């Protein structure tokens, strides 16, 4: 049977396409196999012939660490022990003590205690150092330390502590209670319902739904959903929360990858709870991942006005892959996209600067997209609020100062030496700020920051080169840098004071008290209330 020129052309095109695809696949496979063979041979030769005795496991761990470092911080390798620890953390059969604990440099420190949970009932406080767990010395346990704190429901664990300089022992009964995802939901005096959501746990959407139902009974005139400082969590919970406010069958977020099987669309599955109530989402630079999905989707669908600061910009999706001998690779497989098509990823890990750091997408490269009503929104990383607050340029030094252990330690010291009875009357004051400032001037984050380290490195380099007469110049430069940082501390006094007051309040009034403080002090909340009180302005933002 003879084929027409047209059919022969189609067949030839198909054959070429298959050939190219197969060739590309074979080429990739060959290159991978080639590099694996080179690496395995090199690894074997080093371990067999190196002049000093090598540790194959440690050598491999170092190799894996530096290989993954060239990708992104979310692509990670988990050893068999890491996988088991993660499994226990996710298992409902193994529960904790009701506190956030951090292991750093062989020290186990209590970061936060949750009200009414076992750790709180026996008197654990933020800043306490756990030295022994059931008679086992923490400094000898390594990565297994945190696993020992978890155990079967209703079992107990004996802890030795150093609390405010004193040594004591406490026995804690483990319980299966987890902190609430919504630490506070309150109908304010002006009739606006405020919901703070600080994590996307498996109960997050149900907690938001319950709060919304109560506000609807009270005929709230608007809702503020506070996602500031929310690092994210379960994607499905984010989709369910969006579904409370938008119709069934609506696209919330999609994932796109080079691999077809990893492309997914997440659609609302239920009828909404309320399509009409005015809604404002609060975000800041620490709102990430699932928080950005909620804010971005509701903004794209013109269902909410977003207020605050540009969000973090975590738009990469990971999936676990099993490895031999019980290990696991958590690998980035795709990117998140909002309904309008925006990618929320802020850092380009494929392209890096001279210092090796990932490059942030520049404003000149942002692409425009349209919301449901035709409003213009942009990608480039994170979600840009409709009402942008806090426009002042952020200081990296001040942010590092606030994020350092100094704020945590200052709050611990304040708690043990002061008494705060009334949340509404609390104020750190000038004396408290000056005390913090004095401490910061002798703290490593001030004395050993990147600018000072680089000056010291320059001094060492000049000394090695044998250059003379520059020591005084560099000494003056260091002095000028530190004077500049001192002025920055004064310039950002309000920002620092807010961070200190929030951390102190958490010691006395727990997480709920912290969000109550945010309600009283927050300019973002006040701006949201004012906008909800002006229907014309609210609607003009959604329709402009």
Looking at this protein, list some descriptive labels:
544 residues; alpha+beta; 2-enoyl-CoA Hydratase, Chain A, domain 1; 6-stranded antiparallel beta sheet; 44% helix; 20% strand; globular; disordered N terminus
Write up what this structure looks like:
The chain is an alpha+beta fold and 544 residues long. It is built from 18 helices and 23 strands. Helix 7 (204-217) packs parallel to helix 8 (235-243) and helix 11 packs across helix 16. The longest helix is centred in the N-terminal third of the chain and has 45 residues, at 5-49. The radius of gyration is 27 Å and the shape is globular. Residues 1-25 have low confidence and may be disordered.
Topology of this structure?
Layout: H1 5-49, H2 56-69, E1 76-78, H3 80-90, E2 94-95, E3 99-104, E4 107-113, H4 118-121, E5 129-133, E6 136-137, H5 138-141, H6 145-149, E7 151-152, E8 156-163, E9 166-173, E10 184-187, E11 192-196, H7 204-217, E12 222-226, H8 235-243, E13 251-256, E14 264-267, E15 279-283, H9 290-300, E16 305-308, E17 316-322, E18 328-337, E19 347-352, E20 358-360, E21 368-370, E22 376-378, E23 387-388, H10 396-403, H11 405-417, H12 429-440, H13 444-447, H14 450-465, H15 471-491, H16 493-521, H17 523-532, H18 535-543
Parallel strand pairs: 11-12, 12-15, 15-16, 16-23
Antiparallel strand pairs: 1-18, 2-7, 3-4, 4-5, 5-6, 5-8, 8-9, 10-11, 13-14, 13-18, 17-18, 19-20, 21-22
Helix pairs in contact: 7-8, 8-9, 11-16, 14-15
